[in-house]
């Protein structure tokens, strides 16, 4: 068996009881330190509910990343372009960003779209987004290389979050991010493994001190990236740039029109 990221040799690392009943082997890459499970045969069971009971931080996470996404768009993207939230869950972040004037769309194959219905990427013609966000997604990927290749067909710039191994020899007992109870975290990254993943696609890799990462064809100063994506500075920077006109009213009219047409009424 080779590392799914850098194709180096791996070693058996630790075991954990996944979903409370499967004794699962974890492996670790001898080169890039990527930790991953044996073939995750339990995923259908793990995704009976796409959002697990342990994900009590979902709302807090969206509030935390919202100004960071805005600041990245304001600094390095065309704010009038289209954007994609990959693995976007219930669509909360998409709705929040559309409310702030950004033409955002959701992608998720596991989770129902509760907050941004009709604004999935499947609801519109194919487009390549100016930015793709993927928060708390990478640790769920069976094959990070294949999945990143898919993401890059949708955007050349990927802003994402995943916690990196905080110290050497992390274990399910010493690091909460394993979460074997849910069975969904099947890949755990080291900074070296994320760099190796970026290198496979000739991408520049930036990161900050809050487990926010950027893969991009653009060359960006990492010190500047850390500043712009620092929660304190991002809010200040966005205030300096100024507000955009919300898409809320426009979206309401569009959704109402679609709803009336689906019910057989004349369009507005």
TrEMBL record:
InterPro entries documented for this protein: SAM-dependent_MTases_sf
Gene Ontology BP terms: methylation
GO molecular function terms attached to this record: methyltransferase activity
Keywords linked to the UniProt accession: Methyltransferase, Transferase
Name of one Pfam family that matches: Methyltransf_23
The UniProt record lists the keyword Chloroplast: no
Protein name (Swiss-Prot/TrEMBL): Class I SAM-dependent methyltransferase
């Amino acid at each position: 068996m080779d590392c799914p990221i850098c194709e180096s040799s791996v070693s058996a690392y630790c075991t954990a009881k996944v979903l409370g009943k499967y004794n699962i082997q974890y492996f670790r890459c001898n080169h890039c330190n990527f930790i991953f499970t044996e073939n995750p045969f339990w995923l259908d069971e793990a995704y009976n509910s796409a959002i697990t009971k342990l994900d009590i931080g979902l709302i807090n996470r969206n509030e935390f990343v919202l100004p960071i996404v805005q600041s990245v768009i304001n600094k390095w993207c065309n704010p009038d372009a289209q954007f994609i939230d990959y693995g976007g869950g219930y669509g909360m972040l998409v709705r929040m960003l559309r409310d702030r004037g950004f033409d955002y769309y959701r992608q998720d194959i596991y989770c129902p779209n509760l907050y941004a219905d009709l604004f999935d990427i499947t609801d519109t013609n194919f487009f390549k987004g100016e930015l793709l966000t993927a928060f708390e997604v990478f640790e769920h990927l069976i094959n990070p290389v294949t999945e990143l290749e898919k993401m890059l067909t949708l955007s050349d710039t990927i802003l994402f979050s995943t916690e990196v191994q905080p110290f050497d020899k992390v274990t399910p007992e010493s690091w909460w991010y394993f979460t074997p109870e849910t069975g969904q975290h099947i890949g755990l990254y080291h900074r070296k493994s994320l760099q190796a993943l970026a290198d496979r696609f000739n991408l520049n890799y930036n990161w900050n001190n809050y487990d926010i990462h950027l893969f991009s064809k653009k060359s960006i100063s990492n010190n500047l990236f850390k500043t712009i994506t620092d929660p304190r500075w991002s809010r200040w920077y966005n205030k300096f740039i100024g507000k955009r006109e919300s898409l809320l009213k426009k979206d309401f009219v569009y959704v109402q029109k679609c709803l009336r047409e689906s019910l057989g009424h004349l369009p507005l």
